Amino acid sequence: MALTDAQNLFTLFFAIYFGMMIGRSHEMYRPWDTYNAWRGNSQNIRRLVTAWIILFIIPLIQFAVLFALLGSFSIPFSLTVAGIVNIVLIGFGSFFEFGYFRIYEAFLHRYPKSFFSDEELPEMHESGKIHPGFWAHFIPGVLYVLLSIMAVLIAIYY
After folding, report:
1. Counting beta carbons within 10 angstroms of the beta carbon of residue 41, is it exposed (0 to 12), middle (13 to 18) or buried (19 or more)?
2. pTM to 2 decimal places
3. Read out DSSP for 67-135?
4. Interatomic CA distance for residues 17 and 11, integer angstroms
5. Domain ranges of the chain
6. How many C-beta atoms lie closer than 10 Å to residue 114's C-beta?
């Protein structure tokens, strides 16, 4: 299967952003703490399952759909303004993972007692990692996802 230039560019940027967001989520919220989840800690299980769904499964499905869509159309990459705009749009179009990270954060901030133990909560509040503001995370997250999709569609139909 030969990939188009648009698919290669999209995959490159997505891989970078995806790796950054997985790393950042682990650094800030430790959702991938399988040891404590395996031991039956319900907060760790909730963080792990929520992270798998919001940070891993949904973005990979969106990636697959946009990747297939980019392969179905010929997108020119020439040294013209339109070609450069296409490169920028596809690079921005793969940035949707950050939106899903913000959506994940929104749920953690909305229901902190469901996702963090009583021992973890004071540290999370003191470090500023948890504070109220569901909509302050959720709305920008949804906007990142929608604007990224729009950028890919503009590149395709421009």
Report:
1. middle
2. 0.91
3. HHHHHHS-----SSHHHHHHHHHHHHHTTHHHHHHHHHHHHHHHSHHHHS-TTHHHHHHHTTS--S-HH
4. 10
5. 5-157
6. 13
Longest Cα separation, the chain: 57
**Which two tokens mark 72?**
């179905």
Residue 10, amino acid: F
Tell me which residue of 22, 54, 17, 52 sits closest to 148, measured CA to CA: 17
Tell me, what's the pLDDT at 129?
85
C-alpha 9 chain-centroid distance: 17
Instruction: For 146, list phi and psi in degrees, rounded to 5.
Output: -65, -40
pLDDT in tens, 31-67: 988 898 899 889 999 999 999 999 999 999 999 999 9
Residues 117, 112: Cα–Cα separation, whole Å: 9
Cα–Cα distance, 144 to 90 (Å, whole number): 14
